[in-house]
Structure formats: C-alpha cells, structure tokens
Amino acid sequence: MGSKLNDLKYSVAWNLVLLTVGSLIYIVGMNGIVVHHNFIPGGLYGLCLFIFYKTDLLSPGIWYLVLNVPLLILGWIYVSRRFILYTIYSVLLITVASELITVDLGITDQLYAAIAGGAIIGTGSGVLLRSIGSAGGLDVIAIILNRYFNLGIGKTFMLFNMLLFSLVISQYGADIFIASVILTAVTSTSLNYCLTMFNQRKIVYVISEKSQQISDSISDTLKLGSTLIQGRGAYSGQDKEILMTITNNILLKRLEEAVFTIDEDALFIVENSYDVIGSNFNKRKIY
What we know:
Strands 2-3-1-4 form a four-stranded antiparallel sheet. Helix 4 packs parallel to helix 7 (138-149). The chain contains eleven helices and four strands. 63% of the residues lie in helices and 10% in strands. It folds into two domains: 2-196, no CATH class; 201-273, Alpha-Beta Plaits, CATH 3.30.70.120. The mean pLDDT is 85. By secondary structure, it is an alpha+beta fold. It starts with a helix and ends in a 14-residue tail after the last strand.
C-alpha cells in the first residue's frame, strides 16, 4: 500500500492535478480579492503586483512570467529538470489564469478581504507545494539556498518579504501595509495547515516502570511500533526506560487508554510533529 501511494505521489498525472488545482485556487484569491483592494501579498507575485500598481505596465501575470525566466534557468542548473518542467507548467498556468480569470468575490471590508484572501491563496500555495514541482518565484531560490547553503526555506521568504514590505510602507498608507501583513500572515497559516492536514503526527513519550509491557500491548492491539530509550531519573539516579512511539490524532486517545490501563502512574507526554519521514511513514520528497 505504501509503495502504491509513493508511486502515485511521483506520477505525472497526480502532480499535474495538484499544480493545476493549486494554481487556479491561487489566482482566484489574487484576482477575486487581492487586486480589488490593492493589497501586496508576500512572495514574487506580490512584487509583480507592486510593479504593476506603480507603473501600470503589462499585467501582474506577465510580470510574473518575465521575472521567473532567470529563476527557472537557475533551477534547471541547480535543482533538477523534472522539478523545473513541473514548475514551468505551473508558471505558465498562473500567467494564463491571471489573464483569463476575472472575478470579484464581493468582499468590501478590508479586514475581511485580507483574511479571506490569505486563506484562499494559502490553500492554493499549499496544494502546489504538495507536488514535486512549485509555483516558481521564491520557491526556486529557497530550494537552491537550502540545498547548497542550508538556509531555511522559511528564512528566505521572511527576508524577501521584509524587503518587499519596506517598499510597501514607503509607498502606501498604513492601512494597505497592515492589511497586506495580515494577508501574508493568514496565507502562511493556511498554507501550513494545508501541508500538515494529512501529514501531522504525534510523538508520544511514556515514562513508566512498565515500559516493556506497554510496548507489547500497543504493538498487539494498536499495531504501533515503539522504541525504548535508556534514561535516568535526575533525582533518584535510577535507570529508566522511556517508551517513544509515533501516532496520529485518531489513535492518540486509544494509546492513552492503553498506557494508563497498564500503569495509572505513567507519565504521558505528547508533542506535535509536522511530518515523519522514513520507515513506514512518508518518503522523502525528491525534486
């Protein structure tokens, strides 16, 4: 089953579906809300809107295509041809869609527009990033910097957006600036939710005198693997075995019940994890 899902993840048809749906949702958010309020979202498309607002030359979609050309060349050299071919498809689709989709979602309140626009754009971006391509723009630069200089992808976006919003606040009033920041923050939140919706896992640590018994129980009843980590009590100095396992929201309550049925004095610690890669979980994404 895992092999079939992994094959689907890397299939051409599945990735084209993700890129198509994501690009269309993204442009509906941009053309349906953002451009009607003169907001400046983060990323390269935000810079394209800024140039368009200030010069009234070409269109945001055409600017997006033009500015992506050198980035796509860099990606072809430093990332992979498969990644760039998918990205070229997405960039062309975003350009064409931005020219053809003329819609107004009718949100007049500036705050509501920033929130709704961010939610839609973030969802589109999240769908795009679930593929092994991208929407172009900063995605390409961020992946190159991460691969060769170990610079976090989030830091690349943050630095670019800081520069972009410095331009915004110098050229526009405080209302547009604040609304654009809210739009970008909601976009980021919506994007992260879209990415983690199917991937989020729970890391559970159990400190108990009956760790081996608990491990055997959850293996038999919940089919969960676990690891026993050697630890030592700081106060008592006694050696302890700490059980670590990975589960999801659906099984979390059943796991809790299994642990405390065996040892009501156990310590049950839960941490959120964005994703787990390897073993029987998700495979590493290869661009």
